[in-house]
């Protein structure tokens, strides 16, 4: 059997790719595990945990847990009302509509992250913490509407929860 010769150019390119840490051709840039690490690290950088090792007092069934949950969803609804110009109506873009557009990122996600929640929910909130600012910056280039941005954030919120919490998976019958 004769071994196939690899052209020098291909060999050099492969060495360069390996030494630079680049993925081989056709491989995904980030696999799911790497993406999860990046998201978790970034979210922890910008929304860190307590500096002292202590158990989260906002566990399910406590008043604090309920306060954070109500605060999170109420801020989402209030943000929608502001974005849709239902509260403090104005014909001009103003701070109230801007606050409504950003309410999910500023209030809902931090409130829900503050609770002691499942690993999947925390992961969904970490992804949303990074995704929503992207949506809020990119969408206005195409549509100049606070209501559309808030609606996209809400769709992303429930879509991420559906994906990470596996709401849409079929339940297996035993």
Automatic annotation (TrEMBL):
Keyword Transmembrane: yes
Tagged with keyword Nucleotide-binding: no
Keywords: Membrane, Transmembrane, Transmembrane helix
Membrane-crossing segments per the record: 124-141, 147-163
Biased composition (Basic and acidic residues): 8-18
Region span, Disordered: 1-30
The organism's place on the tree of life at top rank: Eukaryota
InterPro entries for this protein: RPH1 (IPR044966)
Protein name per its UniProtKB record: Resistance to phytophthora 1
């Amino acid at each position: 059997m004769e071994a196939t010769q690899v052209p020098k150019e291909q060999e050099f390119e492969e060495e360069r790719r390996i030494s630079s840490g680049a993925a081989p051709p056709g491989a995904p840039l980030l696999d799911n595990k790497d993406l999860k690490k990046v998201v978790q690290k970034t979210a922890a950088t910008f929304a860190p945990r307590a500096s002292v090792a202590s158990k989260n007092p906002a566990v399910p069934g406590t008043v604090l847990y309920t306060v954070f949950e109500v605060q999170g969803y109420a801020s989402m609804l209030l943000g929608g009302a502001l974005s849709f110009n239902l509260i403090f109506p104005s014909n001009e873009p103003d701070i109230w509509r801007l606050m409504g557009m950003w309410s999910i990122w500023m209030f809902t996600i931090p409130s829900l992250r503050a609770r002691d929640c499942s690993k999947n929910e925390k992961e969904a909130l970490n992804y949303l913490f990074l995704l929503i600012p992207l949506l809020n910056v990119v969408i206005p280039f195409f549509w100049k509407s606070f209501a559309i941005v808030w609606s996209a954030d809400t769709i992303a919120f429930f879509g991420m929860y559906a994906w990470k919490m596996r709401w849409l998976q079929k339940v297996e019958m035993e």
